[in-house]
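Researcher: Before we compare anything, I want clean individual predictions. No alignment, no superposition, just each chain on its own. First chain goes here; please echo the sequence and then give the C-alpha cells.
Model: Echoing the first chain and its structure:
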Amino acid sequence: MYGKTFSKLWRGSMRAKPNLQLVFIYMFCNCDSNGIFDAMPAEISDATGLPIQIVLECISELEAPDKNSRTTGHEGRRILRVDQNRTWGWQIINHGKYREEGTRRQHAERQKRYRAKRCEGKRHSTVTHRHASSRPVSVSVSESISDSVSDCVSD
C-alpha cells in the first residue's frame, strides 16, 4: 500500500524520534485499507533493520497516551491493539484522517496541474469569436485571455 507521509510527522510529538517515526511509517504503509496492521513486531524489525527490542519500545510508545498529541481522541494514542489476547496486530487510530488528507491534497494537486495546463493552452492558442455578423473573426491571444483571466490568475 502507498502511505503518504506528512511533514507534520517531523514537527509533532514524534519530533526527533527517528525510530518511532520509522516504525509508525512502516505500519502505516503496510496496513490494510481500514488501517489494520496485522503483522508481528519481528516483521517490522526485519524490514527496517531496527533491533526487535527497539521496535517493541516504539510500539509501546505508540500504544501509550500522548498528552502532546494533536489528536485528543484515545488520549493521543496512535495505535490500538486489535486483539488484547495476542501481542501483535494494531489499528492505526487516525488512518482514515490521514487517508482523507492525502486524498484531498492529491485532488488539489491534480486540479492545479489541470488548470495550469488549460491556461497554458489558452496563452498559446488563437481564439475565434463570433460577432453580430456571424463571421468568424480571429483575435489575438491577449484579447482572448481577458475572457478567462480569472480562471488562470486565481491559481
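Researcher: Okay. Second chain, same rules.
Model: Second chain and its structure:
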Amino acid sequence: MTSTRLRLALCSALLYTLAFNLTFFIQELFLVVPKALTPGLRPTLFHNNHTWEGQHPLASLFQGTGAVATIVSGIVCLLLLRGDRVRSTTLRLFLIWMAFHGFFQALPQFFIGALVPGNDVGMAMDYFHMSQTAKWIAASVAVLVMVPIGARLTRHLLGISHEFFTLALIPAFAAIPLIVAFRVPREMLEVLLPPVLTTIVGLTAITANWWRLRRVSVAPEPVTVSLAYPLVAVVALLLVFQLVLRPGIAFY
C-alpha cells in the first residue's frame, strides 16, 4: 500500500469512528431530551446508553425518537454533500460517513423492532398498537430504502476514490476496535453488536452498488486528506465519552 493510500485508509478509519460515535450520541441525546421534557420521567445520559426513572405513557413512544433523529442527521449530511459546496476531501468523507451512520444505525432497528418488542423502535411500534403485519411492512420499507441510500453513498465515495478496500472496507472494520474504546465498560454483546451490525449492513448496501457504479464513473485524481484533524477530533470525543458521559449526565 502506497503512502497516499495508507493515509487515505487511516483518515477514513478515524472519520468512520468519529461519525459512528457522534451519530450514536445524537441517537441517545434525542432519546433523553423528550423524556426530560415529560413530567414524571427522569432520564440519565451515558456514553453507551441511557436510562430513566419514573413512568409515563409516552415513554415507549420516545424510544423511537433516537432513530428518527439519526435519519434526519443522515438526510442533512446528504444535502450538504450536494454539488461542490464542500471542497475539502476530508470534510466530504466525514459527511459521507455521518450520512452512512445516520441511516444504517437507524434503519436496521425497524427490522429488529419487528422481531424484538423490547427494541427501541419496537417499543415505539407497540405504542402505536401496530399489528405484526404492520411491523413487517415497516421493516420491509426500511430494508428497501437501504438500496437507493447505498447507491447515493457509493457515488459520493467513488467521487473520492475507486479503491474500495482502501477507502471503505478496511477502514470500516479497522474502526470497530476504536469504536469499542468509546463504549466500554458494558456487556460485550452491547459493546460490539451496534458497530458490527451497522458496518455489515451498510457495507453490504455499498458493495452491492460499488462495482456497477464504478464502471460508469470517472476515476478521480489521487486526493490529499488530513490526519491531524480527524485524530484530534477522535481523541477529544473519546475523552468526552469516557470522562464526561461515562459517569452519567442527569437530565432532571
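Researcher: What stands out in the second chain?
Model: Residues 10-242 form one domain. Additionally, The chain has a mean pLDDT of 96.
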